[in-house]
UniProtKB/TrEMBL annotation, chain A:
Belongs to the RecA family. RAD51 subfamily. Involved in the homologous recombination repair (HRR) pathway of double-stranded DNA breaks arising during DNA replication or induced by DNA-damaging agents. May promote the assembly of presynaptic RAD51 nucleoprotein filaments. Binds single-stranded DNA and double-stranded DNA and has DNA-dependent ATPase activity. Part of the RAD51 paralog protein complex BCDX2 which acts in the BRCA1-BRCA2-dependent HR pathway. Upon DNA damage, BCDX2 acts downstream of BRCA2 recruitment and upstream of RAD51 recruitment. GO terms for cellular component: Rad51B-Rad51C-Rad51D-XRCC2 complex; replication fork. PANTHER family: DNA REPAIR PROTEIN RAD51 HOMOLOG 2. The keyword Mitochondrion does not apply. Coiled coil: none annotated. This is DNA repair protein RAD51 homolog 2. Part of the BCDX2 complex consisting of RAD51B, RAD51C, RAD51D and XRCC2; the complex has a ring-like structure arranged into a flat disc around a central channel. The BCDX2 subcomplex RAD51B:RAD51C interacts with RAD51. Interacts with SWSAP1; involved in homologous recombination repair. Interacts with HELQ. GO terms for biological process: double-strand break repair via homologous recombination. It is found in: Nucleus. Residues 75-255 form the RecA family profile domain.
TrEMBL record, chain B:
Its main location: cytoplasm. InterPro entries: AAA+_ATPase (IPR003593), DNA_recomb/repair_RecA-like (IPR016467), HR_Repair_Mediator (IPR052093), P-loop_NTPase (IPR027417), Rad51_C (IPR013632), RecA_ATP-bd (IPR020588). It comes from the Eukaryota. Belongs to the RecA family. RAD51 subfamily. This is DNA repair protein RAD51 homolog 3. The keyword ATP-binding applies. It is found in: Cytoplasm, Perinuclear region; Mitochondrion; Nucleus. Keywords: ATP-binding, Cytoplasm, DNA damage, DNA recombination, DNA repair, DNA-binding, Mitochondrion, Nucleotide-binding, Nucleus, Phosphoprotein. The keyword Cytoplasm applies. GO terms for cellular component: mitochondrion; perinuclear region of cytoplasm; Rad51B-Rad51C-Rad51D-XRCC2 complex; Rad51C-XRCC3 complex; replication fork. PANTHER family: DNA REPAIR PROTEIN RAD51 HOMOLOG 3 (PTHR46239:SF1), DNA REPAIR PROTEIN RAD51 HOMOLOG 3 RAD51C (PTHR46239). GO terms for molecular function: ATP binding; ATP-dependent DNA damage sensor activity; crossover junction DNA endonuclease activity; four-way junction DNA binding.
Length: 389, 362
């Protein structure tokens, strides 16, 4: 819209020529200058300049709808995560048309969650899925196709007992490996065609933080601004794609240590808070501006050695809430949420929410158990460990 | 009448020719006929007609208009009382703002992420539609969303809560009649939604807002959520950004006064590092601080959400606590009702106090 050429908007040919001499060729160029500047550059009187701006505005302006139009398409507003307590809090699931970020320490389950959502997106609508393809942009090479298949077989054993369905599901997940910031940005700018070709209903970017943190050392002057601009551009493109195609976008982020006074955290008891007053705490990476850009922020963190927690830290529809889960063969499983301590009507700044990291390691010698599921012909030998670290 | 020719809003080439032909003041031109002007100045016939028409609009009627259009402060007081304000359903905030968000002015809401700016905007978009007999404005709302945070399920919840709130308040037949028409469906249908993806679309929308408001004269609220996001990452030339933002601010305040709407702008926060300390300040730069008439900053303090009125021509600076509940933007539970000098009559809802105040003055 904004890059529409002037001559297609009904502006007279000689006016187009006059504007071209000043490098004003698209609607965006002309709308980015003030009326007085336009007067001077185009040689128009003030009312004529304002009229030209209005004409170009009509060519660029988005359509007006009402909230009622949106409400009537209620069934298409959310993507169910198949975790009932989470869906309930999010009023249906992850919002389609907005960005959802999952952030947390390493090994907590962010990629597992992304893989699980990828499987769900390919399921038919009768099972709560989107019956569509998935575009998975992987910057850490953490995506494992074997894990995808294993999770699908464990989570929906009857459905995926038919081998063809398994193959079809795997063929619907389109993986793109990008390893630098510029690659990621280029890929996003050309993603429209891929989304249409793959008939994608879910876009996953795992992870946003890794490429950015590799390339930008924010202690150097100027780098922070460039990084913020890059992230802002990525966020703007992702928001445009998610809204234009009405698909959910899931991003993963990492953690960083915030040095400063400790922010009170609703779900921790006083005993935790009183120790370590000023030593700094761990929080979501990429800064305050990025916290503004994402629409929903889910923090995954460690509760104790076995269990982990999903914290809804920022959401336009959900209150601040904490849910416990574990990572199993079938993906994420919510457990221990009989008395949810949610709906506190409280919260903290989602950019400063402290995150619990893993403090101890348990080394278990577990027995190797033979796999009882169908093996795909080309599957490699699996190692015997049962717990997923 | 004594305007010099270079100051007229004409095309530069025309002005140069007029000056070269010896015309210095607007009064030199006023009695000319088009063909004569055409010959003397060497401009085309259409340009001559344009010059004379502009002078005619600019000239005589302007003086007469100047006499009749001046407003006394008393007229303004009546106007301000008549036009009202939009309640936020958080009575502490309504009191601090002097009744609610004022119509005819621009209000900026800054805040850290997740603190409740979008919630407040959605609440106001619902509250503007409360019927007049309940103390509301009975108007429609236009929501310009640049971030994608507008989720309609939340608005539906807030609308449902507002309808229930009014149901509890309904006393006389007029109110009960109005209540029959107040449904969630109607509230959602009167909420216009525009989704802008970049600053060009936002600028285009604001250029066309006067037309939109003329076509929909019942609109009483325009929300831009947020004005910061499209302007924060696309500009290398920050002075161009400042020029565009200033132009935008001027257009919005003009809209607010001419079409009698309340304009709400949401801003983000940015980190400013000074002396090794970093603190959060409103984004978009220092000069943007002058743009809005009123500035409200929402921030976290520990577990609590606070709202501070930082800039207002008529109200004192104040900080109040609020919370976001399932029903929407509300008072914090254990705060005692603040006693401020500006509150006329305090009541659990802001509605009754407004009705009383208007009757007091008539």
């Amino acid at each position: 819209m904004a890059s529409k050429k002037l001559r297609r908007t009904g502006v007279s040919a000689d006016l187009c020529e006059r504007l071209k001499r000043h490098q004003l060729e698209t609607c965006q160029d002309v709308l980015s200058i003030t009326p007085v500047e336009l007067m001077r550059l185009a040689g128009l009187s003030y009312p004529a300049a304002v009229e030209l701006l209005r004409l170009l505005s009509k060519a660029c302006v988005p359509a007006v709808s009402t909230a009622w139009d949106l409400w009537r398409k209620k069934g298409e507003l959310c993507f169910s995560t198949s975790l009932p307590a989470l869906d309930r809090l999010l009023r249906g699931g992850l919002p389609r048309g907005a960005l959802t970020e999952v952030t947390g320490p390493s090994g907590c389950g962010k990629t597992q969650l992304c893989i699980m959502l990828s499987i769900l997106a390919t399921l038919p609508r009768s099972m709560g899925g989107l019956d569509s393809g998935v575009i998975y942009i992987d910057t850490e090479s953490a995506f494992s196709a074997e894990r995808l298949v294993e999770m699908a077989q464990d989570r929906f054993p009857e459905f995926f007992s038919v081998k063809e369905r398994l193959l079809e599901m795997a063929s619907r997940v389109h993986l793109f490996r990008e390893l630098t910031c510029q690659d990621v940005l280029n890929r996003l700018e050309r993603l429209e065609e891929d989304i249409i070709a793959c008939r994608a209903g879910l876009l996953v970017l795992d992870s946003v933080a890794s490429v950015v943190r590799k390339e930008f050392d924010t202690s150097l002057p100027g780098n922070l601004t460039i990084r913020s601009n890059l992230l802002g551009q990525e966020a703007a493109i992702l928001k445009y794609l998610s809204q234009a195609f009405c698909i959910p976008v899931v991003l993963t982020n990492q953690i960083t240590t915030h040095v400063g006074e400790k922010v009170h955290c609703p779900q921790w008891n006083q005993a935790d808070v009183s120790t370590e007053e000023d030593s700094g705490f761990v929080t979501a990476a990429l800064g305050n501006t990025w916290s503004h850009s994402v629409n929903t922020r889910l923090i995954v963190q460690y509760e104790d050695t076995e269990r982990r927690q999903i914290v809804i830290a920022k959401s336009p529809v959900a209150p601040f809430a904490v849910l416990s889960y574990t990572v199993q063969k079938e993906g994420i499983r919510l457990e221990g949420n009989e008395n949810p301590e949610s709906v506190l009507n409280q919260g903290t700044d989602p950019g400063l929410q402290p995150i619990r990291v893993r403090t101890g390691f348990i080394y278990n010698l577990s027995q190797a158990t033979p796999s009882t599921h169908q093996e795909l012909p080309l599957a490699a030998e699996r190692s015997g460990s049962n717990c997923l670290i | 009448m004594h305007r010099t020719v270079p100051s007229l809003p004409l095309a530069p080439s025309v002005k140069v020719k007029l000056i070269n032909a010896g015309f210095q003041l607007a009064s030199d031109l006023i009695d000319m006929r088009p063909l004569q002007l055409c010959k003397e100045a060497g401009i085309s016939q259409e340009e001559a007609v344009e010059v004379l028409q502009m002078l005619r609009d600019d000239g005589q009627p302007h003086q007469q208009r100047a006499a009749t259009e001046s407003l006394t402060a008393l007229d303004l007081l009546h106007q301000e009382q008549a036009v009202g304000s939009i309640v936020t359903f958080c009575s502490a905030l309504d009191d601090a703002l002097g009744g609610g968000v004022p119509v005819g002015k621009t209000t900026e809401i800054c805040g850290a992420p997740g603190v409740g700016k979008t919630q407040l905007c959605m609440q106001l978009a619902v509250d503007v539609q409360i019927p007049v007999c309940f103390g509301g404005l009975g108007g429609k709302a236009l929501y310009i969303d640049t971030e994608g945070s507008f989720l309609v399920q939340r608005v539906a919840d807030m609308a449902e809560a507002a309808v229930q709130h009014c149901t509890l308040l309904a006393e006389d037949t007029e109110q009960r009649q109005a209540l029959e028409e107040l449904t969630v469906e109607k509230i959602l249908s009167n909420l216009f939604l525009v989704r802008c993806h970049d600053y060009v679309e936002l600028l285009a929308e604001v250029y066309l807002l006067p037309d939109f408001l003329s076509e929909h004269p019942e609109v009483r609220l325009v929300v831009i959520d947020s004005i910061a996001f499209p302007f924060r990452h696309d500009f290398e030339d920050l002075s161009q950004r400042t020029r565009l933002l200033n132009g935008l601010a001027q257009q919005l305040i003009q809209l607010a006064t001419q079409h009698s709407v309340a304009v709400i702008l949401t801003n983000q926060m940015t980190t400013r590092v000074s002396n090794g300390q970093s603190k959060l300040v409103p984004a978009l730069g220092e000069s943007w601080g002058h743009a809005a008439t009123q500035r409200l900053i929402l921030h976290w303090k520990g577990l609590r959400r606070l709202a501070s009125l930082y800039k207002s021509p008529s109200q004192m600076e104040a900080t109040i606590q609020y919370q976001i509940t399932v029903q929407g933007f509300r008072d914090a539970p254990d705060e005692p009702r603040p006693t401020t000098a500006s509150s006329a009559v305090s009541s659990p809802s802001g509605n009754h106090s407004k009705r009383l105040r208007m009757e007091d003055l008539s």
